[in-house]
Each structure stands twice: as structure tokens, then as C-alpha cells.
Here is the input.
Amino acid sequence: MSRFDEIAIVATAQTPARRRYPDSEASLLLDLTNQLLAETRLPRSAVDFTIAGSCDYLSGLPFAFVSNVDGFGAWPPVYESHVEMDGAWALFEAWVRLQVGDIDVALIAGSGKSSPGTPREIFPLQTDPYYAAPLGLDPVSVAGLQARALLDAGLATERDFAAVVARSRRAALTNPNAQVAKDVSIEALLAEPYFASPLRKHDLPPISDGAAAVLIARGKRARELTDKPVWIRAIDHRIDSHHLGLRDLTDSPSTRLAARGVGVHAGPLDVAELCVRYSPEEIVLRRALELKDDTPVNPSGGPLSGHPVMATGLVRVIEVANRIRAGGARRGLAHAASGPALQQNLLCILEAA
Amino acid sequence: MAERCAVVGIGQTKYARRRGDVSLEGLVREAALRALEDAHVGWQDLDAIVIGKAPDALEGVMMPELSLCDALFAVGKPIHRVHTAGSVGASTAISAATLVESGRYQTVLTLGYEKQSDGNATWALGGGRSGSQGAGGSFAPWIRNYIQRSGAPEHVGWKVAVKDRLNACKNPYAHLQMPDITIEKVKESPLLWDPLHFLESCPSSDGAAAMVLTNAEGAKRAPRPPAWVIAHAKRTEFSQFPGRDTVKPAAGVDCAKALYQKAGITNPRKQIDVAELYVPFSWYEPMWLEGHLICEENEGWKMTDAGETELDGAFPVNPSGGVLSSNAIGASGMIRCLEAASQVRGTAGAYQVDGAKVALGHAYGGAAQYFAMWIVASDPEPRYRGSR
Here is the structure.
């Protein structure tokens, strides 16, 4: 990836994941934007490009994203864009935009409030509108199919799923932004009843509201803005077929492609934050990424401990960046996902100076 | 810029009130395949896909890149989805151009669409709340304000409505085909939102529009002349605040200034040969001529009234028939950008502007608060007419 210019994350901000924020998405974004500007001592006018990711459907309001402009500031007018995708894809576009070379600083945000609706009723609208959506095939059921495929293929056991949950819940105890954190044994988890067999309630992410934002800058500017820039060494995203019948749900070819694209194993990996929304997804991702058993995965607790949709992927980037800034890691992998059964996957390699 | 970007393929669907003959997949493929054919490239040559559309609620499909990726041969590739309200088609083209300019990807397919007959656009345009006044209801007071400020006579709006519909008769893809339209008919059509009459308003269409973008190396292989992306700009401002100029929004002014500066344009009225402006309601033609600094304040309506914006006028606007003749919202901005490209490629057929070398594509959205514009030219280093 050396033909690309150096771009670094210079500041990060996130709200804690909560079941419900009474405030608007815009007010969450306003707080985060102000935090980032205060930390870097930048005036709003020094941000050359702003890009946000959010989803109208969460609040049931077409053009809901328009009010978010109030949060990250647009007066005087700003150079700005919006993706109807997780904020991690906004980061991708911002990284690409800075590569053009004519601007230096970008603000990226992702925000989502699931509390106004019922995600399990809304998300079937993500599926093919002619054949799948009328069946109401919701993400929990799809995750259940993926879990069943893993069990049937002998690639995982229910105990493996519970182990992912136990480790994530425990890790979340040290994460002030986590919504769910608990010291719980695998046995206790396995004693719980099924929710959507073979999944138990704890194999699902909590329903969360929240937002996340980062400031990135090109090489020289990044070094001016912080003593601890976290370099985005590579970023790539790929998608798999939408049709579940055409997919091997035990694998994630798009993750494998993106992993080759970013060179996951071109260096030692000190940490990985994966967008594990359902515990079986960690099994799929670890295999597709060919992670070593001792690579720490989701020390933040991951999405199983807080899942602010549309920010969850960007939070993975932030968690890796923060760990690198704190000196706990030198090189890390962040992963974001979209769609049923990990259909679309984004990978980002972050590194200390 | 690391790389130059060129438009080498253009594809559009026939726009219609209802394209009941195709699924969403069929609709986007119709435009995409025509763009690929125009560029003489195959799906396998595409490095990335960038799609855009207005709210997902218009069709009731959430994050449609997920269910359209197979139809667009995006499996195994990056597919990116933009949404910036009405400006989205132009924003999507600009995001795709950025992917090429960055040097990250060589050849990118960009596509905008809307299948408005699947839902209720007026409901969605009211933010999903009941009792929507529709887009026309939001813009009418600002149009009235423009008329008051500029002293423009009422017939200017009617003239735009007639001109764009007659232009559309030369465009086989255009939704509305109204060869018999007259000033009298526009004036006599029902008043929807004072001062806007029914025939001064855009239709609600189904349709898709696509472009193949590539870098200089890719452009060498293109069988037809490329349109070079000379500059692009975007600006956004708040929906509302005290003192906001809703007739000539600051974001529109800033966007135009940034665009012309990047393109090296000092006199847009002389140096731009043709413009495709986002005019969903007749009066927005003179309003954007002024709002994007193509002419002085209060002069836009005089350009329209004098016939300067006609197909054979000094500054042709919307020779394709514009948004007033086809409005599949998510595609509309993309159409402005690709019609601008088509003009400088010399492929605009019956509505070709003679000798067009530099063209402007434009879109706006939200409460006239999102702006996205690009300049395309037949020459990668355009020498502007009358620049000295």
C-alpha cells in the first residue's frame, strides 16, 4: 500500500452505548464534534471535509440524516457528504478523498438510534424485496441459520458460542462505553434457554443508541495535531452475494478478499476488534481472517457489549486506535460489517508511528 | 490530484411514471449495461461500484446495495452507497470520481436510481410525516420571495416549463413527452403551490442512470471520446436558521466559487458552453443562474426571458429536458452530470449543443442546502472561450 499517502487518526470520540438516549442523534454528534475539535485545538473551519454514516430507517424518517448536519456543524457552509452505511465506510471514503492530495483534515462520524423502533421488524427490509423481505427474515433468524451451519459442519459447538460471549462480557467490564458487562461462566450461559435456536439471548447484541467520530489528517498535518498519530496503513471492503442459498454461511469470502487487500498478516497483529454482532460470527471471522489463537479479539467487549448500529464499525476502528495510542498495541485490525450474515465486510489496519 | 478522471460510458433507462416491466435489479442493470456497452468494458473490468439514491423509504428497501450487489456484479468487490437527499445523484458521481482521482481504483461504475412508483414520494419528501406539503410546498415560498426580490414577471416560470418540455421531445429517454405544450397550457394548469402550477412541477419517475469513470490510462482504451472531469465541489449548510438566505443559499454560492476556482473558470457565463441544472420547479432555472454566480443578482430571469437558455441560446440550460421532464430522484443529479458529459463528448444527439466543449452538471437537495456540481470538458486542459 506504499503508493498511498500516509493518513492518520488524530483524535477519537464515542458516546457510551445505551439502550436509549433521550437526545437526538444530532446532539450526540454535536458533543463528539466539540470533543474532537477541543482535543486538537482546531476551529471548525480547519476541517476540510466531513462525512457521516447513518440510516434513515432506524428512526423511520426519510431524510433523518439531514438533521445530523446540525450536530457536526455546517455554518459557514461545509464540504460534506453522507453514506447510508456504517461510519466505517464514511472513514473509507474520507481516506480515499484525502489521497487526492488537495485537502488535509477530515471529520468522520457514524450514528444510530435503534430505540425509536424494533430492529427485528425493521431489518428484514434489508433483504431482497421480492423473495425474502415478505417472509420477514430478520437478522436474528439469519444469524441462527449461520450458527446452525457452523454446528452442522462441525466447525463450532454451542460451548464455543458461549465462550465468545463470556469472554466479551468479561472484557467489557473495563470498558466504560459498554452497555452490557458481566463476569459470567460458560456453564451459566449454556444453562440459559434458547431464544432462536441454536442462539440464546446472550448470543445477540444488545439494542443500543450511540455515536462515534474521528478526525483524520494527512502525514505532516497529523504530526502537528497530535504526538500520537495512529496510521491507517490500509483499508478495504468487499461484499458477498445477497442470496443465502448461494453462500457458504460458515465462511466469509469477502472478508478473505479484504484481508488480502489490506495485508492482515504483513506484520504482527497485536489486537483485533471485530464486528461480532452475533457470537457465531466470531468463529466465521477468525477462520476467514486466519487469526492466531492468541490474537486478542474484542478487548473492548465488542458489539456483543454495545451495538450502536451505524457507529458499531467505526467504534471498532476507534477501539483499536485508542489501544495503539495508549501504547497497548503497535499494529491492529479493525473490522466492520453490514448486511445479513456478514454479507459486507470492511477491514482497516492501524499502526503506531 | 493523483489521477485524472474521465467519463467513458453513459447509460440511462427510459424514464416513466411506472416501470412495471422491470424489478429494481432490472432497472439498475438496464442503465448499467448501457454504460458498460458505451465504454466497451465488461463487469470484470470494474474495480468498484458507487451507487446513490434518495431515502430508502421511497421503495421500502433498506440499504439496497446489499440486495442489488448481485445484479451489479459487485460480489467480491467494493460497493459504496451515498445518500445526500436530492443532490445525491451528483454527490454519487463525485464520490466515484474521487475513487478514481485518488489512484485507488482505475475503473468505477457509478449509478443512481429511484423507483418511485414502488412507494409514495410525496409522503417521503415530507420526512415521512403525515400531511406532507411535498417538495413544492417547501420551495414555493422561497420562489415567491425570489419573484418579489427580482421583480421577475410571472411568465418566466411558464417559459422554463415549456422550454424544458420541448427539449425533452428530442430526448428519447425523457419521461414527459409534451410536444403540444404552450405557455397558455402551463398558465391554465392547476395552481399547486402558489406561484407554481402543475405544469411547472417535475413528474415522479422510475429510472436509473449510470456512468463508467476511469483514469487517463483507461480513457486511452475508450472507443468514444471521453468527458474529462475538470473540477467538482460540494457544499452543505443547515436546513434553517434566522437570517438564512433561502433564495440564494450561501452553500450554493460557496460551492460555485470553489468549483470555478478549481476549474480555472473566471467568467462562467462565457466559459461554460452548456449547463444541466437541477430544476425541479420552473423558477429554479433563474434562481440557480443567480445562485451559482452565472449571472448577476436579479438578472437570471432576464436570461431566461430573452431565450438565452434555449437549446440554441447563448447559455443553454437543460437541453435534455431536465428534472422537469424526468425525475427519478436518486438518478436526477446523476442525469445532470452525465448529460453534461454527453454534451462535451458530442453524443447528445438531437439535443446536442453545437460545439459544446465545457459543461456544468449540478444538483441540490434538502431544504436547498446540499449542493454538488461538476465541470466536464472535451479537453483535459480546457482552453476557455473568452477567458481573456
User: Anything to note?
Assistant: The first strand of chain A starts at residue 7 and ends at 14. The CA atoms of residues 56 and 304 of chain A lie 23 Å apart.
